[in-house]
Amino acid sequence: MSTVATASPRGHARCAVSSTRSRTASSSPTGEGAARVIYSLFKVLHVLGAVLFIGSLLLAGWWKWRTDRNGEARLAAFTLDGILAGDVRFTASGALLLLVGGGGMLALGSDNLMTQAWLSGGIILFLVAALTWAVVLMPLLRQLRALARRAGDGPLPEVYRRMTQIWALASGVATLAALAALILMVAKPGG
Predict the structure, then answer these.
(1) Is 157 helix (H, G, I), strand (E, B) or coil?
(2) What is the pTM of this model?
């Protein structure tokens, strides 16, 4: 039995398993059906990862914006605790599922898949989003939470507002990069 992976005209990776066994044997869990099931499982993980990753980025921005409009330091600290906990649980899990699912589909896909501009562009945009989140957004959120905690029952300090502007810009970059990657992966332009 041999496994052959191809790309359709639109760039969709397909797995094909050929065998000298009868049709009944190839539809068994060890034949072509198994390769399709495994590929589908990787795809489900990848889509779930995209939902978690992009959803978490959007929700973090929404909750931070709502809280900052209020101006209460204690509420900001509470909200930032929730955003940071959500980032660890959902954003990081989403990024991991994107990598596992996408990597699995690539492993089962054709050799020329990485020559597809939509795929390489989507991967680059995902890396921009993930690295911006990990290297810029998470550390800024921790610093903002510390500032809000120090302010206690008082108003948020001016430095908090300045750092929030940096956070908003970086959050916009990460979110737009993730959404652009999603569009490329779904539309597959030129593929």
Answers:
(1) coil
(2) 0.81
Query: In the 8-state DSSP scheme, what is residue 16?
Result: E
Beta-ladder partners of 5: 15
**Please, are residues 53 and 137 in contact by the beta-carbon 8 Å criterion?**
no
Nearest CA-CA partner of 149 in 87, 71, 73: 73
Taken in order 22, 27, 28, 32, the sign of the CA dihedral is positive
Radius of gyration of the chain (CA): 22
Find all residues with CB under 8 Å of 30, minimum gap 6, and list them: 1
Domain ranges of the chain: 41-187
pLDDT digits (tens, 9 = 90+) for 109-157: 877 777 889 999 999 999 999 999 999 999 999 999 999 999 999 999 9
Q: At what angle do helices 32-70 and 117-131 cross, to 10 degrees?
A: 40
Q: Which two tokens stand for residue 142?
A: 């921790």
Q: CB-based burial of residue 148 (10 Å sphere; 0-12 exposed, 13-18 middle, 19+ buried)?
A: buried
Q: What is the pLDDT of residues 146-181, one digit of tens each?
A: 999 999 999 999 999 999 999 999 999 999 999 999
> CA 151: distance to chain centroid?
33
